[in-house]
Specification:
Order of helices and strands: EHEHEHEHEEHHHEHHH
Distance between the termini: 41 Å
Largest sheet: 7 strands, mixed
Radius of gyration: 17 Å
CATH class: Alpha Beta
Strand order of the largest sheet: 3-2-1-4-6-5-7
CATH topology: Spore Coat Polysaccharide Biosynthesis Protein SpsA, Chain A
Strand content: 5-15%
Number of helices: 10
CATH architecture: Alpha-Beta Complex
Number of domains: 1
Shape: globular
Helix content: 25-40%
CATH superfamily: Spore Coat Polysaccharide Biosynthesis Protein SpsA, Chain A
Number of strands: 7
Length: 253
């Protein structure tokens, strides 16, 4: 089974409750992202994996009302949450998506699933070596590889961000980094702060078709280049960089 596990929580320090903030009259950030995912032709199941914290009861209830499966697990050990979720639902191939990427492109997901399957990769990503925009991240890995990471990962960054163990130990896995012919990683439509949310709302309001694909957004930006400027000052990979600092503290103990 090919399953998409979407991690989501309410406890963001930079934009609290962002997962359930509205981006149009009908949809929250999480809801819009799930609707995008349902346009994939190759995903067998979509599961939202949230935490056991009381504050995330609202996510469980929201997701259940959408008739989407939900799983609850550890708050900071997201690697364990993914492993337990994949094990519970008997997922062989895991597609990792984060709930703050409402404009994830289902055609990119399907293309990468095909490439992952045909080449028997252990781990495939379009986000580790970046050429794709922020907000289009897709990571795919086998259950066997996830279990290996779950058993052996010890660094805080490897437990909190799920996949660093793979590329920190690239000699142990068959890894593929998917790249675009042109590097457009300067673009960003993930939702991390208030101006990110404003940009995504603008994109959603200006593009009528659904699902919204990468090409649709690039076409919009070519017509309205000022949209680029809305969130261009944001720090890239802020959460992961913070985890790397925690790694240093962990290693110095």
């Amino acid at each position: 089974m090919i399953g998409c596990i979407v991690q989501a929580r309410m406890g963001s320090s930079r934009l609290p409750g962002k997962t359930l903030l509205k981006i149009d009259d009908k949809n929250t950030v999480l809801e819009f992202g799930i609707n995008q995912l349902t346009s994939s032709n190759l995903l067998d199941k979509i599961i939202v994996a949230t935490t056991n914290l009381k504050s995330d009861d609202v996510i469980e209830n929201f997701v259940k009302n959408m008739n989407v499966d939900v799983f609850r697990g550890k708050s900071n050990d997201v690697l364990d949450r993914y492993f337990q979720c994949a094990k519970h639902f008997s997922i062989d191939t895991i597609v990792r998506i984060t709930g703050d990427n409402p404009l994830v492109d289902p055609t990119i997901i399907d293309n990468l699933i095909q490439k992952f399957t045909l080449n028997s990769y252990d781990y495939l990503s379009n986000a580790h070596v970046r050429t794709f925009p922020y907000g289009t991240e897709v990571e795919i890995f086998s259950f066997e590889s996830l279990e290996q990471a779950w058993k052996n990962a010890i660094l805080p960054s490897e437990r909190e961000h799920v996949t660093p163990y793979f590329y920190n130990n690239s000699n142990l896995f068959n890894i593929h980094n998917e790249k675009q012919s042109n590097d457009i990683s300067n673009l960003r439509w993930t939702v991390d702060r208030e101006d990110d949310l404003f940009l995504v709302k603008s994109i959603v309001s200006k593009i009528i078709k659904r699902p919204i694909l990468l090409g649709d957004i690039l076409n919009l930006f070519s017509k309205e280049p000022k949209l680029f400027k809305i969130n261009e000052t944001q720090i890239r990979d802020e959460g992961y960089k913070k985890s790397l600092e925690e790694d240093k503290d962990f290693q110095n103990k």
